[in-house]
Amino acid sequence: MPGTTTSDPDGVTPRVDALLDALVEAERTIAAAQARRIMLLAEAVMVAQAQAEADAAASSQDADLPMRSMAAQIGAALRRPDRSVQRELSDAFGITTRFAATLAALADGEITRGHLKVITDAGSQIDGDQVRAEYEEAVLAIARRETPGRLRPAARLLADRLHPVPLDERHTQAAKTRAVWVRDLDDGMAELVATLPAAIALGIKSRLDQFARTTIDARITPSCGDTRPVDTRSMGEVRADVFADLLLTGHASTEVTNASIPEGEAIVAHVQVTVPVLTALGQGDTPAELTGHAPIDTATALRLAATAPGWDRVLTDPITGVVVAVDRYRPTDQLRRVLRIRDEHCRFPGCRMPAARCDVDHTVARAHDGPTELGNLAHLCRRHHTLKHHSAWRVHQSPDGVLHWTSPTGRVHPDLPARTLVFTSDSAVDPASTAHAPF
Length: 439
What we know:
Layout: H1 12-54, H2 65-78, H3 82-98, H4 100-107, H5 113-122, H6 129-143, H7 148-162, H8 167-174, E1 179-184, E2 190-195, H9 198-217, H10 235-249, E3 272-276, H11 277-280, E4 288-290, E5 294-296, H12 298-306, E6 312-316, E7 323-327, H13 334-343, E8 359-362, E9 377-380, H14 382-390, E10 394-397, E11 403-406, E12 412-415, E13 432-438
Antiparallel strand pairs: 1-2, 3-4, 3-13, 4-5, 6-7, 6-13, 8-9, 10-11, 11-12
């Protein structure tokens, strides 16, 4: 439904427009300064390296003294710990020598420091200048229009496709590092940390979230004269308490046992996996994806698929990657499944609220004869759903699923469906087809 139109008798819109222009320019200036800082740190590394090479008599034990001295000098000048500075020197040199195009985009104000970190972190394992250049070209196209949060899973997927070692082989080695440890904190607290396969870790988080929300929803509102203690725990506190109860007692409540939960009411985890059809058939090596997060190994994806209550077959356009159809052997709520797979999260620019926690909104309201069909529906979280209906923001949906948001000052911000961000055509598959299962 279109937002309420308002007049502008006080000339607020031009002021806001000028303010936005100034903020954008300030961000560009900050980005350029950050890029210059990185280049200066990299130059300091080269100076230190030249000093080390010039001192031919230095022993191997003292070979890093010029670098340590340089870090100490910079640290003293900037009032920062020299150990931290030395790490920054190493990072800066790596960026200038391995990610020059990304640094140039930062210098031009096209991306932020947050984008640069996402790109370099995801691409750190890519070897070879040509392959890395392909990665930068693809990921920068996304970074110029998306937030760092939305960029992260796309960057990981792109980097994985260009990695010289297959994901299944890397996952086998990485799985050997799984562990649990405790780190002491102040005030009688400690951190319990677990390194696990991504699908398992996210499944645990999903189950904790469901228990915690159920606990919060069941709270009793105190009435006059009620002397019972009021539960004021935050979501994070409840989640942590549920986690402890499950591990220590095998149940989320210490008052009852596992046997008291009817099987039909048991809370199970929910993760979403997308598997290219040829990979599922053993005829391709394109990795499966833990939707919205990162690629996962084929064995885990197929093991999850074996226990899935159903599969969605997703057909995508072989050129653009836009989801064009979804079908199922047992069709139920087909349109909602198409939307959930196409959108993945709230479709307001930059928002990452999962689709499962969003409303399905008619772009053109039904009250204004908007049809209930794919081209007029999109997921919006409650915050942005409210913004759409009760402010001067406008949104138009094009046939390819792109939402074109127009701000109160007339600026247009397109939001692309998540499935199209990192799509690459594959001549061997026509049409592109993937299998998709929620667990």
